[in-house]
Structures are given as structure tokens and as C-alpha cells.
């Protein structure tokens, strides 16, 4: 390929990503004040899109079918994150555009954080720390908490991260079961073909499935009721996977005992009702947020684009889209 390809960047990205994009591409910004004028002028020349960070909250930064229609030369969308629900991958596939994501490099980090969030929620670690910091300990110890010792643990989703979570949970010596569309051949845990059955039989439900239409609000009032008054919900997947109003009501009514949430329906905005509850642990979408892991994710965004530029197969295409190389 002669010259530097024109690339559209949908929003702010890590400095190490932006530096490499500017080195290898002619970068245009969708978040610039004159984005509409820029799109009108250079849209027909755009052959690549870099997206991910900051792209899930605002519709203007999503890679929609409508946006791709304005980019007739588009060949690749490189997404930061294992989840790519900010990209209309099915529409990209119909248009012959390959979409890539960043799987693998964040599995262990997210699994580590998930275990921490599970323990923090069940043992009320943040709440007990506040008890100490607020000077309440001299007046009485923190109340006894629930425990992991008497629980059956359920995982919704048994992909790479789900399996990494399960391997860590094995060390706690508790029964593990999971729900997925099909049984996973190489795992020893009990498979539940129906989510409602898993929810009824476990005491903690860890959600780690992709976002998108198929999983939208799959954790609803019925599932929460099945989980029951001893139940704990942990969501490290996408906020869209949980019916947030139903969860708030379940927590308020004692339908379930507690929740640990790293993701929310309308990030970065979190409902006041959740913030005000004492039986939830809330994190600002930080499951993969370490220097080492985010750098590895960022480099994979760039490496997919550079493979395409070099006419090689991209490294991590998503299943909805073709593997396409630069011509």
C-alpha cells in the first residue's frame, strides 16, 4: 500500500495507541468539533477505524451501520476491548468490513478482579473499612457477614474469561456450575442449559457474557427472584446484561442479598439508588484497568491494523466479520 491510509478515530484512546496511529496512518477524529465537515470531506477515503475507549456511552461515537455507510472504502474496524458491542459487527460483516477486538490479553486480569469483587461483596470489605475509617470500631465491631464457605457458585458464560474465573474459584473448594448455550467440552463443572435453573441452584451468580441483543437484560426480575434472598449477583460483563431497575428493586426488597457491579447500563452515570445502598459494591468499570493489561490491549489494537496494512491476516477478527487483508 502506498502512502499512509486514512483512519478515523472515534474518540480518545491511550497515548501509546494514538502515538502509533499517528505514526502509521493519517488520523481523522470523529470527536473533533468539525467532525461532520471532516466526514463529508474525507469519509470516502477512510479505510480503517480505531474505536473502543469512550465509545460505548455516546451514540455519536459508536460504529453504526449509518456511520459505515458514510465510509464506502472502509475495510477494518479495530476495537479496544474484548467486548465490541459499540460496533455493529453484523452490519460490518454484510459490508465486507472486518472487525477486530482484544481477547486473551485481559482474561487473567478480569478474572482476578472478579474474585476480588466477589469476596468484597460477600464479606462486605468496603463497608467494614468504612466502619473503621469513620471511627466506629471503638463503639463496636463490624457486624458478622455472609461467607463463601456455604455457597454454590454459578457462572453465566464459559468463554475464556469465564474459564479463568472458574479456575480461580476451584481453590475455594466450593461447587461450581455454569450456564451457556452449549456445554463446554473441556470443563468439569455442571452445565445448565437454562439460566433460570442455574439461578435457582446457586447462591452467587457471576455474569461474564458479551453485550448485545442476545444478552440484553438477560438478568431480569425472574432470574433475580430465582437467585433468592441469600443470593449475590456479580456483573463484570456489560451493564446491558442486567435489567438495572429490576436489580435495584430486588436489592431494595431483599429479593437478593447483595450485588457487586463493575459495569452499568448508562456508564459513567450510576443510579443514585445504587450509590445509596449499603449492600452493593460498585466499581467504575476497572476489571482490566492495569497498566500492563491495558498496554497489551492497546498494542493489539495497533497490531491488528498493522497486519491489515501489511496485507497479512488480522490477528483477532470477531466471528461476525470476514478476515480481510489490505489490497
TrEMBL record:
Residues 115-287 form the D-isomer specific 2-hydroxyacid dehydrogenase NAD-binding domain. Keywords: NAD, NADP, Oxidoreductase. It comes from the Bacteria. InterPro entries: D-isomer_2-hydroxyacid_DH, D-isomer_2_OHA_DH_cat_dom, D-isomer_DH_NAD-bd, NAD(P)-bd_dom_sf. One of its GO terms (cellular component) is cytosol. Gene3D superfamilies: NAD(P)-binding Rossmann-like Domain (3.40.50.720). Residues 24-318 form the D-isomer specific 2-hydroxyacid dehydrogenase catalytic domain. SUPFAM superfamilies: Formate/glycerate dehydrogenase catalytic domain-like (SSF52283), NAD(P)-binding Rossmann-fold domains (SSF51735). It holds the Pfam family 2-Hacid_dh. GO terms for molecular function: glyoxylate reductase (NADPH) activity; hydroxypyruvate reductase [NAD(P)H] activity; NAD binding. Belongs to the D-isomer specific 2-hydroxyacid dehydrogenase family. This is Lactate dehydrogenase-like 2-hydroxyacid dehydrogenase.
